[in-house]
Description:
mainly alpha; 3-stranded antiparallel beta sheet
Amino acid sequence: EKKKTKMKAILICCIVACLFALVAGNTCGGNCPSNDCPSCPCGTGANHVNIADICSKGPWNQACCRCIVSHESGGNGNAANYNTNGSFDVGVFQINHVNWACNGGNAPCDVNANLRCAIDVWNQHKSFSPWSTCRGCGCC
Length: 140
């Protein structure tokens, strides 16, 4: 009888753990902090880069770039965000899928590809205005 009770308790714990995993959503190994990514376009392993180094390669204000990248991805080149409109933002600069033409239509997960795309987007606007963190960083 004790064995049956113990087995039932283990089974219940396993079911609860599985249900929690389903409810918690997909974190892509931590790359999708919103926990709602339907897929992991940049994989499940983090790729942290030096924010100052990556920002130094662009034509923008360095302090603004560091603030924006810090808030957008925390310097994780494999960061992903699934937006409420069904689009993805990916990479260190969180490039939205509408701008993936800069990478042949593919998610610019490679840090250098993401940087090239960020420079393209920045050059189109001559500002960081397309980034949602622009105002919070005082860069719009």
